[in-house]
Design a protein that fits this description.
Elements (H helix, E strand, L loop, with lengths): L1 H8 L5 H4 L11 E2 L4 E2 L1 H19 L9 H4 L1 H12 L12 H7 L4 H7 E6 L8 E6 L2 E3 L2 E4 L1 E9 L2 E7 L4 E5 L5 E8 L2 E9 L6 E11 L7 E6 L10 E2 L4 H12 L5 E5 L16 E4 H4 L7 E4 L5 E6 L4 E14 L5 E14 L5 E5 L8 E6 L5 E8 L6 E5 L2
Parallel strand pairs: 1-8, 2-12, 17-21
Antiparallel strand pairs: 3-4, 3-15, 4-7, 5-6, 6-15, 7-8, 7-9, 9-10, 10-11, 11-12, 12-13, 13-14, 16-18, 18-21, 19-20, 19-22, 22-23, 23-24
Length: about 400
Amino acid sequence: MRKKMRMMGLIAVYVAALCGCNKKIESDVTEVTTQIVTEEASEEKTEETQITTEQEETNVPVEEKDYNAIYKRVLDQYYALILSNPEDFDCEVGELGVVEAVMGKDINEALGSVGYAIEDISGDGVPELLVGEIEKMDGDMGYGSLIDAIYTCVEDAPVLVADGHSRSQFFAMDTGSFYYLGSNGAMYTLFGQSDIIPDGTALKCKDFYFTYEKDDTFTEIGYYYNQIGISDKEQSEELNISEAEFWKLEEDLESQIKQIAMTPFSMYADSEENVQATGVSVQWARDIMDTISEYDEFVDGDAQTKIVISTDKTVTEVKVLALQFEDADEEGNISFAKTQLYEQKQLTKERPLVIGVTFVGDIPNYGISYVDESGNTQTFAIQESGMDGSLMLVEFK
């Protein structure tokens, strides 16, 4: 890992300068401007938290909150970001690490390479949201240690605590801390560890090591240490150690990195409200055709494959749509330009609809719409799952 960072250090520009990441990831997320707080500020926050905790002990217990719902808007935005297939660094605060992780990958690979976990790292009773990169899979669960963004919840709203990218990385540690590895250029390597402070709203530096030239001749590298998390020689202790001893400090911290269990974003569209109550589903024709005796059919041009739309409940005004991706807004809402290709009056359980299609690229180019039992029009993109290659319906407006 150190060698990788040294190579990246040869790039003489900051990624921060490359990326215009100066906007909030969502309108109601409060940005934490100081990601790693000083020890003094942390102590003040700790005292405030202790007072708040003592006050709460005398009150009626607070109703348990649904943190999946609280973090949903943030997760929607990351999901929409990955689906948008980003090709440059025109990103928002908290997005750069994810953009770097998925750039150049097809949609299915990208959705499977990034995941999320909701768990209480700080121990304050409020689960944090971790968005990170998946290194291996075990069944439906992904595992990884590189964390691209950390959020907590303040007054029922998600708050960005810290975010990383290729030259400023955070890794989960088995101690509950986060290992930090960074680079400011060929001569400047940074590493250390930080904890989430008790109220979960910032990181407090425990140990911070960095290299810096000893004088204006740039001929000798010095090794420095502090507990405030900044590469400033004047506020740091110079370490009287060898180069090998310095890198051994990094190796010791790196050895404490652990894997976090994460849900891949390829599973996200299959969860919660994305599973439709109307019972309409989509499958590959090759997996189901031998069970179908009667069906309606539509073939779009020189179709390369066939899919089956079926339902458990009768729906009406069924339309097959050609889609062209337009945008994904800050709330995670995806929009497509729609062209109607086919329409039939109703779809029943006894008579599914077989469609001949040609999927082009990774962004959905087909969709369906119908009117459900309540008289509401439902519209979905047809997308292939990044987990197992199955088909799924992704709602959009």
